[in-house]
Design a protein that fits this description.
Blueprint (H helix, E strand, L loop, with lengths): L8 E2 L5 H11 L10 H13 L6 E2 L1 E5 L2 E12 L10 E10 L8 H15 L4 E3 L7 H6 L15
Parallel strand pairs: 5-6
Antiparallel strand pairs: 1-3, 2-4, 3-4, 4-5
Length: about 160
Amino acid sequence: MTTNHVRPRPATPADQAELLDLWALLFDEDPTAPEEPWRQHAAGWFTRFADDPAGARFPVIEVGGAIVATAIGTLELGVPNPQCPKGRTVRLANVITLPGHRGHGYGTALVLDVLGWARSIDADRVDLSATPEGQRLYERHGFTVTSAPRMKLML
């Protein structure tokens, strides 16, 4: 891994189109495809949270004027419990680096940025769902696999 000392910066509303294109890649969607309903909802969601540093963090890495990597951290408030005494969990999601820019430590920089933000807002823990390719990155930073299976119901 090459370590460029590129530091993440917070995304701004002006970054919305580039972020939506990166998020499309996460879900194996063509970023040039016609507008999909999820894109409208994601754009509105981003607009609401982009300027809410207490509720969300959107670090991006820019190279040559283009965003090549990003992640999302969102604060989820829940019932306090033994594993989350204050009920403050950060969800780390949508960590992506464009294929041609991988191997430069951008994913690590993004994860560390969100972890730093989580500590700054007094979160109890950070949760995520990892792909097999990403699992080593998260394990290097102390994440562990849990025994709770993940389930979902599409409505």
